Amino acid sequence: MQFKTVTWKKCITKVKGALVASLSVGALMVSAPASAEKLGWPEKEELKFGFIKLTDMAPIAIAYENGYFEEEGLYVTIEAQANWKVLLDGVIDGRLDGAHMLAGQPLAATIGYGTKAHIITPFSMDLNGNGITLSNDIWKQMKPSLPKMADGKPVHPIKADYLKPIVEKYKDQGKPFNMGMVFPVSTHNYELRYWLAAGGIHPGYYAPHKGDVSGQIDADALLSVTPPPQMPATLEAGTIYGYCVGEPWNQQAVFKGIGVPVITDYEIWKNNPEKVFGITAEFAKKYPNTTVRLTRALIRAAMWLDENNNANRPAAVKILSQSNYVGADYDVIANSMTGTFEYEKGDKREVPDFNVFFRYNATYPFYSDAIWYLTQMRRWGQISEDKSDDWYKDVAKKVYRSDIYTKAAKSLIAEGKAKAADFPDFATETGFKPPQSEFIDNVTFDGSKPNEYIDKFKIGLKSGVKL
């Protein structure tokens, strides 16, 4: 699948000679980026980007389909990847120039958990977008104990407290309670763990220093990896009793009648950061103009996805439903992308912020977002030993490159392609969000105090503890 675009540099070359008589260079330059010379032409024009078949890869698809990469002078090939490990390896070995990544992947690679490589992100791709789905059988056992609204439908958010008796019953019977998530350093792993632990269900520890990376030490519920598109089939087969995944694979379970999404990540942590666009630090250093230009294209795509109160979402869903992108049915993708979310069959509710791509400064790579992921790595043992608060901050600044984002955003503002009011105040932005309290367990997260945050949890490793 080869997607190619035309660069402005090549357009300018082509109009020289015979075409000059019929096409004025001045007219051509009206369409070309006004600050092209100031930003510098891309050092590398031919790029290949990877993605996993999830709706939150949308900024890459839209940047291509709407010609934003083209306007930055970039030839682009977009290629679906088999799983998150293959995708990460592709970026590290140079087969891919960049990719739609789990937010934990650049952080984990940079600190050497799993594969060691310095990966950075100049762009956060979205907020929210995930859900936790349980099998019909588990839902049937859980539903009678849930608080009900006047119309008989369950009150949301649904806490894991109501799942705990079922997990305990399975444990007493000697039956493992298996659940799926997409990757050990995925948002989905940490969100599922967060939800379970908030309900008193231990999701297990990692002990990489002992060679145990199963994540199942002391676990009440056993979490393991399943690629996103395979989640519904794995649930239907009975291999797992529930999973945490991005869309459209929760809604797919509803459409197939095999499972019930019980909670969205918006309800676990309101407006939580999700995917990022990852590249190697070496790529950013070698091709600085290219890096800024691809970031500009992605910012414009995110703006388009959210503008006019999500008015472009139906068009985006049509694009994403193509087999070369997500490849799920239009109705399945639209069920969440257009501002609703269906829980139990027929229980569709308004969730306008289920997918956020630009508003609330979604695309800015906040250091505090990175630090949250690092605290969860420490909480569950992927980081084996205590680290100082400064360590967390230093890693965040090494990986989340707000300097690149700022340059890209400022240039778009200068060209009139974006409004300053839609971005953080770059003159005063510190990269740390104010303390956030809208978590399902009401534990407040302050990114400037990571160790204090880790020690607040009833379940999880504390300061001074090493397995």
Helix content: 25-40%
Mean of residue pLDDT? 92
User: Would you tell me the structural class of the helices and strands?
Assistant: alpha/beta
Return the CATH class of the largest domain: Alpha Beta
CATH superfamily (homologous) name of the largest domain: Periplasmic binding protein-like II
Main beta sheet, described? 5 strands, mixed
| Strand runs, count | 16
Distance between the termini: 47 Å
Strand order of the largest sheet: 2-1-3-13-4
Q: What is the number of helical segments per DSSP (H or I, 4+ residues)?
A: 21
The general outline is: globular
Strand content of the residues, in percent?
A: 15-25%
Taken together, the total number of domains comes to 2
In CATH terms, what is the fold-level topology of the largest domain?
A: D-Maltodextrin-Binding Protein, domain 2
Based on the coordinates given, report the CATH architecture of the largest domain: 3-Layer(aba) Sandwich
| Quaternary class | single chain
What would your notes on this structure say?
With 467 residues, the chain is α/β, with parallel strands linked by helices. It folds into two domains: 8-128 and 274-365 and 401-422, Periplasmic binding protein-like II (D-Maltodextrin-Binding Protein, domain 2, 3-Layer(aba) Sandwich); 130-272 and 437-454, D-Maltodextrin-Binding Protein, domain 2 (3-Layer(aba) Sandwich). The protein is built from 21 helices and 16 strands. The chain has helices at residues 8-15, 25-31, 36-39, 58-65, 68-71, 84-93, 104-111, 136-142, 164-172, 187-198, 231-236, 249-256, 265-268, 281-286, 288-310, 313-320, 330-337, 367-379, 389-399, 402-414, 450-454, and strands spanning 46-51, 75-80, 98-101, 119-124, 127-128, 130-135, 177-181, 205-207, 212-217, 221-225, 242-246, 259-264, 276-280, 340-342, 348-350, 355-356. The strands form five sheets. A five-stranded mixed β-sheet has the order 2-1-3-13-4, sandwiched between helices. A five-stranded mixed β-sheet has the order 10-7-11-6-12, with helices on both faces. A two-stranded antiparallel ribbon has the order 5-16. α15 crosses α20 (402-414). The longest helix has 23 residues, at 288-310. The chain is globular.
